[in-house]
Structure prediction request, 649 residues.
Amino acid sequence: MTEAEDRSGWVKRPTAAIEGTGCTLEDYQALYARSIEDSDTFWAGQADRLDWIKDPTVIANWSYDPVSIKWFEDGVLNICHNAVDRHVAAGHGASTALIFEPDDPAGEVRRITYAELQAEVIRMANTLRKMGVTKGDRVTIYMPMVPEGAFAMLACARIGAIHSVIFGGFSPEAIAGRVEDCRSDWIVTADEGLRGGKRIPLKANVDAALDKVSVKAVLVLRHTGGEVAMTAGRDHWYHELSADVAADCPCEPMQAEDPLFILYTSGSTGKPKGVLHTTGGYAVWTETTFRHVFDYREGEVFWCTADIGWVTGHSYIVYGPLLNRATALMFEGVPNYPDHDRFWQVCDKHQVNIFYTAPTAIRALMREGEGHVTKHDLSSLRLLGSVGEPINPEAWRWYHDTVGKGELPIVDTWWQTETGGVMITTLPGAHDMKPGSAGRPFFGICPQLVDAEGEVLDGAAEGNLCITRSWPGQARTVYGDHDRFVQTYFSTYSGKYFTGDGCRRDEDGYYWITGRVDDVINVSGHRMGTAEVESALVLHPNVSEAAVVGFPHDIKGQGIYCYVTLNADVAESEDLTAELRAHVRKEIGPIATPDHLHFTPGLPKTRSGKIMRRILRKIAENDHGALGDTSTLADPGVVDALVEGRRNR
Ligand code: WTA
Prediction:
């Protein structure tokens, strides 16, 4: 136990690191109370920090039954103006907006000022216009982690187009499905991506996707210089098409509730959903959460290691930092290339002050030993953050003691694609920390725990996590399918937003997220629907049936465990295992690669034919003693065979 701990489980917020912070516990309590009791005044005050073409007079206007969510609805603004032009106009054009650190440590670092960012975004915006993109059109962005990815997002926002960013690790099939779902006529991509020294064939993946769906045009950034095929009339090199565009491009005035972006995310059933965020509420929410959660101070370097293909990259590489005129670091590579010290080497090289990463990365690096950390000068670091999955106390302590030298606060931020920004966290300066607990609700957030029947649980309790009031950054709908939005989030417990997470609240009012309670698994901080992996498996001609569950994995948090029933005439073999793994990678992408394939002649089903996933989860967890009641099974013998099969693995 370190000196900072004065009672079991608590880690005192370190006073040395928070000197000068704007937020004390009393501030938090007062601001939180105001955000609930006088919500409209509180949020109007936050909104005031942005430039509005027309100030909003209606602040919150929402209902969870029926579901209709609006914030700042009569306000007019442009988020790109607020993230870029506003700062240049105020005389900060020479401040650094983005620092780009390439995959190759010897590669060229790019430092992009706000004035340069403005010029680059205008160039991209006018190029998109030249391709025919107009307000309300959906533009798919399938890019490596390079500044042009951010330029493309901001360019869309500038001209009122809706961006749909697809993570560069997704397969052609996944791209095609998303392009089709939101009827996107344009794709922005690059020749290739680079990660850990390997080339990712982005353009070739787009070409394969376009065998299945068609678009009007593809804009291609030359990044690695690798060979790619260009289809005449459809594909355009960015450097060619942008060569003669105008150097100005006004920001489109947007209603606060005009769509800003779609981001596909996995749920418990069906295909990924296109979660829709709108302009005004998302701008206010990312500006406010970034400022408070990371206690950002002028001139500091903020590094979020996520990819712009995920919501964390949207909110805390692009919008949150830039709305606050911060300097954001963008890293193309991976934590273990060329060696396990890359994160710390980059922190040292760019004098990073605030570092925000995922538990899976921390666990992987922890395993490599502290020498990789201690050989670098990390004295610039002031604050650490964690996001994406529950952080186990052991990893928390290593992060705190080894990376943070036992001195830095850690913000463990719980939130979701659907929430737009951080919802539960401690605030540096205000709260003591408990390793493994996300902490307290952010301003305006009312968490509630309920049991399976929907009974509200008070005080210290464990249950399903709901949110009872709307907040500005909340997703407004599922693109093109509002019923699905209502069904997914507001029908389990009527009148409440259901997060899909289980959670415990302790006697101090701290929240401990226990993980998903639905059929979503969290693999290395990436959300994966078990139904998606099952659909991919049964597409294979040899597979008759598949059931997929998560199981605890030391590094990834959860791994993917697949039970597979083969067609009668097919024998299991190592070749077939390899083939099925490759098949899932091809259908979804490498992040969905199964960890275990367990061939079985049958799956445990009730007499009515429902697969009993509870049993499959227990077997995958190797928790054979706790299988519970199996008497309702059509054929209880199946379970013995599965347990035997698991033991032999
Ligand atoms: C999980 C990522 C525990 C949770 C921002 C949630 C977390 C899902 C945390 C959303 C955390 C995220 N502690 N669990 N600090 N942060 N999660 O949409 O299960 O990719 O529902 O958004 O990640 O994942 P998503």
Notes: The chain has 20 helices and 33 strands. Residues 524-645 form a domain with the GMP Synthetase; Chain A, domain 3 fold (CATH 3.30.300.30). The first strand starts at residue 60 and ends at 64. Residues 265, 310-312, 386-390, 412-417, 438, 499-501, 513, 515-516, 522, 527 surround WTA (CB under 6 Å).
